[in-house]
Amino acid sequence: MATLQASPTALTPIADYFKLLSEVSRLQVLCALKSGAKNVTEIVEITKLGQANVSKHLKMQAAANIVTREARGVTVFYKITDPLIFELCELVCKRLQERFEQQSQQLKLLEELRSSKK
To answer: Vertex 30, ends 51 and 92: CA angle to 5°?
Structure first.
């Protein structure tokens, strides 16, 4: 298992990987591919993004080996290279849910305190 190092040289590829996950449209494209390989037209239909936008994001993701391209006749299909990406997203989602629940509980307590002082 690789250990996280503080040097910029070691951290740059990690930052680049997370940059690919830091844009909503790119995440939409990945979610569209979660159920299997799709072509650009199918991804556009699922995400409601423009064709040029989807193609741009797929190109970036392919360059980073997050997705692969496979020609089937005249159509190119894209699929997720490493499904671990969804586990990473699930970890983030769970953590955000925990934070939102904590904030919600704190807001409820504040509301109770405010109501009891009336």
So the answer is: 140
**Which residues have C-beta within 8 Å of that of residue 25, sequence separation ≥ 6?**
47, 49, 53, 54, 57
Asked if 111 and 70 touch (Cβ cutoff 8 Å), the reply is no
Between CA 76 and CA 11 the distance in angstroms is 33
Amino acid sitting at position 38: K
Q: Name the one residue in this structure whose structure tokens are 């925990």.
A: 98
pTM here?
0.78
Helix (H, G, I), strand (E, B) or coil at 100: helix
pLDDT on residue 14: 86
pLDDT in tens, 53-75: 999 999 999 999 999 999 999 99
Cα–Cα–Cα angle for 98, 99, 105, nearest 5°?
90
DSSP state for residue 2 in the 8-state scheme = P
Q: Residue 1: pLDDT above 60?
A: no
